[in-house]
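Journal club side-thread
Mid-discussion, someone asked how the predicted structure for our own chain would compare to the paper's figures. Pasting it here so we can look after the session.
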Amino acid sequence: MAEGALFSVAKGITEKASNLLAQEIVLLWNLKDDMEKLNDTVLTISAVIQDAEEKQQHNNQVRVWLKRLNDALYEADDLLDDISTEALRREVMTRNKKAKEVRIFFSKSNQLAFVLKMGHKVKAMNERLDAIKNAKGFHLDERPVETQVGGYRVRETHSFVCTEEVIGRDNDKEEIIKILLDPNVEESVLILPIVGLGGLGKTTLAQLVFNDEKIQNRFEQKLWVCVSDDFEVKVIVKKILECAKNNKPECLELNTLINELNKEIDGKRYLLVLDDVWNEDPHKWFELKKLLMVGARGCRILVTTRINIVAETTQTVQPYRLKGLDDEKSWSLFKRFASAKGQDLANSLIKAIGMEIIARCKGVPLAIRTLGSVLYFKNPEKEWLSFKVNELSKLAQKENDILSTLKLSYDHLPSYLKQCFAYCCLFPKDFKIHKTTWIQMWMAQGFIRSSSLDQCLKILIMSIL
């Protein structure tokens, strides 16, 4: 299950148990003592969940323990739902004393059967959770309970890249523009792939080029399509038409879509960005490429991809291989995200620690921004060294792999926000999120409360960016 969600399930159980303990019906059903024990046991377990989630990556015993706990807590949550529902139903029925159903629900046999059934289930659940709580073989540390949102700064975001916010990509931008605008290119449609690791800033670089003044007046059509995993000709043509017409095409037949595409680009000089391409099937690419060859001489296609095979398949000129930022640019970017107001990072000792931290990022801007954001509210003199020794040093160091570094930002989210973030994995890549619906989904799952909605959203936005 998603890390962070288990803590919130436990919190939900204690809230439901507390609500039930405040109702007289629990006394009537003789469930008070068992319910208090269940509440206390879950509270005790909650204190070590965060530590267990971190240790499970390196300890199989802890991973198995969390799986047992996961199953038990979800069943306990369902059990309390059953009891709460029955209590509410009896309360509603009591108000309508004329209803015939009151006599049925409150018949001695019916009431006794339910009470006995729930009593046995609560006792069995207590025994199960006790066994999990008292499991031997590993040590888990208690963590302070997270009670409120805080400790994160919030940044504004824009649909298009803000040039002033991008560090260290001026030379790359100029090199790519030079290739795109080269008048001596023999191909009528030049295709230039930008290839590099995830997080290097390929999309950002393509946006810089796409919005540059030198590009603006050289093309009759400027089209941006995010491709990702769904590399189907029909889908991509529809996206191109949607971009060209600024609305969704109504037609569904491929031939009709192709005719419309011809009308939009035939004889015109266009710039098309195909962002985040993963397709390694050359047949699919050549099928799409044929449809894009009807433009005027001087058309350009810019492809961003992480995969060398994709770059080699699509290219008509040598791919542009994007590299990481140098030390100076990395430090400049890191300072922008790690320096809270009033903090001085000019101290040579602090800079030395900071440079050791960002060395793990291999010049990847996304990783640098992520670690900077994690350290934003940490005291450079007192906490940066501890972070480097106790957290960063434990990460697996693999060639061209920054995922473990990025996961640190997720680990530093409050537990009740981890589940909101992890909830996104239920939807396909590039899924269009309608904010209101998304918020309602989170609230329906009990992930967030309306009172803390704005702060939760700000923290999630900061985490994603």
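Post-session note: Residues 160 and 207 are 7 Å apart (CA to CA).
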